[in-house]
Specification:
10 strands; six-stranded parallel β-sheet; Na+/H+ antiporter like fold; about 650 residues
């Protein structure tokens, strides 16, 4: 098969796999793995795991580590130090110790396929300790649980696992050395890693900032993107040249850029490379899996599937419980993190390439890891039912929590329920207090709730996305509900509960921009307040006041914009930096100038029925620079410029009608 045909096959398999799994509301990573299994040599045999594709897959890992480096933040680590360096550190160390010990015991008692040294056992234990950041974070966000009690613990453990990959990338290649060279190889690898990382991090940050600023001043998106690829792959090559892994250099590149003001732009620019190449990596992993193993050696696969799952669940449960979590929270945390992860595949692939695992054991381990990731959505979906069945105290604690909320709200009516008591919620509470309007705030940060309660604020610990918490806070007696969350999925949960049980209570929600405005309004929001639009209104009002426009007129203009429910500001002129997946289908503004020979010349605006295709004429500027009324009877002439508002496809159709007829 030619290189082009092979590339097309990979792309077709990737597209179909992602479409199917997206339709099932499952992570695309599982689609890539399944596509790899189907087209691989052990199923349809449409493609072989070629060297070129494996190299492309390795680049996917490089960009994955680069993205992890971009997320590296000392303030973030400091804020979550208890979860990251307490719970996360102990989870990784205990899991590795117990898995390595179990593997060595099996090697001594069973032998055969289990024959391995401590080096192989240690390498496999590192792969087993990882959980899937991609799957778990996606499902947490969809369920609105990122800020929940168990959500914060889960994020802390995942963050440490991501960091733990870095030393494992150095350790595993050294473990593949000859026994007599193992200690010198390990010591030399650690020394090189320490020297390289130290050198880059000490002097590299200033150099990186200067270089990125120099490139950014050229004002070329193409140059900026080429520079990113050069930095990422260049540092990866440098670490490989030093005898370390490609991924370590990419991680360092991400860390260096994370400390600059270009971090968010870099993250947006690099995302397509990261997603596509990582998808190819998972396809190559899927192609290694022989599905016949599931039938022929089902008992071994079942053992490798259940034992690590139950072991990680038990370790996380005990650790979280010992660090102050309730049994219910600890069990939820364990259920969310019991599966294998994408970094487990990365480390397993590295283990295989250095001859640390027998080929006969490779496929059963791979099959077990894929199965554990496939059952993760089900485990998370039914986690609450599992916890309620197994932990009687969790039901009791939730009941006590609801009782505590109800006790505070029992004599309150005509109040405002504030969902989320961050800065936005606290500012709202101050204004309500000033107007003598009662309120009840629900928040999931125990420290914030404790401090606010001590200060006399009417705030209780509770999850506003749960119907029981809203009902206990007096939803049916409330005058209004205000949702201050940025998380859209959590907001949609609150809206669904409020609409179904108290449709008469108005709900005001906050969002970062107008991207989800229609979705939130369709879900029942009485009003949606996008921060980006409010910010642009404030900027405009200050600018107008500074250039001499009377304050009364400024206030009237701002009020008119608000009265129009933000519709004028929801349109925007499309630029190169707006071309992201979420932005492509959004309503935007477009200008069309009518040159000589246009079909529209001499025709009235109404003849083109632009509103019928979803396009609105915002204004019409004549060739002489004067503005004209956008009435249907307006005749169009050469040099006229139309400003149109609509979705991209409708705007393209309108342009064809006006220019070509």
């Amino acid at each position: 098969m030619s290189s082009l045909a092979l590339t097309l096959l990979y792309l077709l398999a990737a597209v179909l796999g992602v479409v199917v799994f997206r339709s099932l509301k499952l992570p695309p990573m599982l689609g890539y793995l399944t596509a790899g299994v189907l087209i691989g040599p052990h199923a349809l045999a449409l493609a072989q795991n070629s060297e070129g594709m494996r190299h492309l897959g390795e680049f996917g890992v490089v960009f994955l580590m680069f993205a992890i480096g971009l997320e590296f933040s000392l303030p973030k680590l400091r804020a979550m130090r208890k979860q990251v360096f307490g719970l996360g550190l102990l989870q990784v160390l205990l899991t590795m110790a117990l898995v390595a010990a179990a593997a060595l015991l099996l090697a001594r008692w069973v032998g055969g396929v289990w024959s391995m040294g401590w080096q192989s056992a240690l390498a496999l234990s590192g792969a087993t300790a990882m959980s899937s950041t991609a799957i778990v974070v996606k499902l947490l966000a969809e369920r609105g649980e990122l800020e929940s009690t168990h959500g914060r613990r889960i994020m802390g453990i995942l963050l440490f696992q991501d960091l733990a990959v870095v030393p494992l990338l150095v350790l595993i290649p050294a473990l593949g050395s000859e026994p007599e060279l193992l200690l010198p190889s390990l010591g030399w690898a650690l020394l090189k890693a320490a020297l390289l990382v130290g050198l880059l991090l000490i002097g590299g940050q200033r150099l990186m900032h200067w270089w990125l600023m120099l490139v950014a001043r050229r004002k070329s998106d193409e140059l900026f993107m080429l520079n990113l690829l050069l930095i990422t792959l260049g540092l990866a090559w440098l670490t490989e040249l030093a005898g370390l892994s490609l991924a370590l250099g990419a991680f360092i590149a991400g860390v260096l850029i994370s400390e600059t003001e270009y971090r968010h732009q870099v993250e947006t620019d690099i995302r397509p490379f990261h997603d596509v190449l990582l998808g190819l990596f998972f396809i190559t992993i899927g192609m290694l899996l022989d599905w016949h193993i599931l039938i022929e050696r089902w008992a071994l696969v079942l053992l490798l599937f259940t034992a690590p799952l139950l072991l990680k669940l038990g370790i996380i449960l005990l650790l979280a419980r010992s660090m102050g979590a309730t049994t219910g929270v600890a069990l939820r945390t364990g259920l969310y993190l019991a599966q294998a992860g994408e970094f487990g595949f990365v480390l397993l692939s590295l283990t295989r390439s250095h001859g640390l695992v027998q080929p006969a054991l490779m496929n059963p381990i791979l099959a077990a890891m894929v199965l554990s990731m496939l059952v993760t959505p089900l485990l998370i979906m039914y986690s609450n039912h599992i916890v309620m069945k197994l932990v009687a105290s969790d039901w009791l604690q939730q009941s006590l929590q609801m009782t505590s909320i109800a006790r505070k709200a029992i004599n309150t009516s005509g109040h405002v329920i504030i969902c989320g008591y961050g800065r936005c919620g606290q500012n709202l509470a101050r204004m309500l207090e000033h107007e003598d309007i009662p309120y009840m705030a629900l928040d999931l940060d125990p420290d914030r709730v404790h401090q606010a309660t001590a200060a006399g604020d009417s705030v209780v610990y509770g999850d506003a996305t749960r119907l029981q918490a809203l009902m206990a806070a007096g939803l049916v007696r409330a005058r209004a509900v205000v949702v201050t969350y940025i998380d859209v999925q959590a907001t949609l949960k609150v809206l669904a509960n409020a609409r179904s049980h108290a449709p008469q209570v108005p709900v005001v929600v906050r969002t970062q921009d107008d991207l989800h405005l229609d979705k939130l309004q369709a879900a029942g929001a009485t009003e949606v307040v996008p921060e980006a639009i409010e910010g642009s209104l404030m900027l405009a009002s200050h600018a107008l006041a500074l250039v001499g426009v009377p304050m009364r007129r400024v206030l009237r203009l701002v009020q008119e914009q608000r009265d129009a429910r933000y519709k004028l500001l929801r349109g925007y002129f499309h630029g190169a930096d707006d071309d992201t997946v979420n932005e492509r289908d959004q309503e935007r503004l477009s200008t069309i100038s009518l040159p000589a020979g246009s079909a529209a010349l001499g025709q009235s605006l109404g003849q083109f029925a632009l509103s019928a295709i979803g396009v609105r004429v915002v204004n019409l500027r004549r060739g002489n620079g004067h503005m004209s009324a956008t009435v249907d009877s307006a005749l169009l002439a050469e040099g006229d410029t139309l400003v149109l508002s609509g979705h991209p496809a409708a705007l393209t159709l309108a342009q064809d009608r006006l220019l070509r007829g």
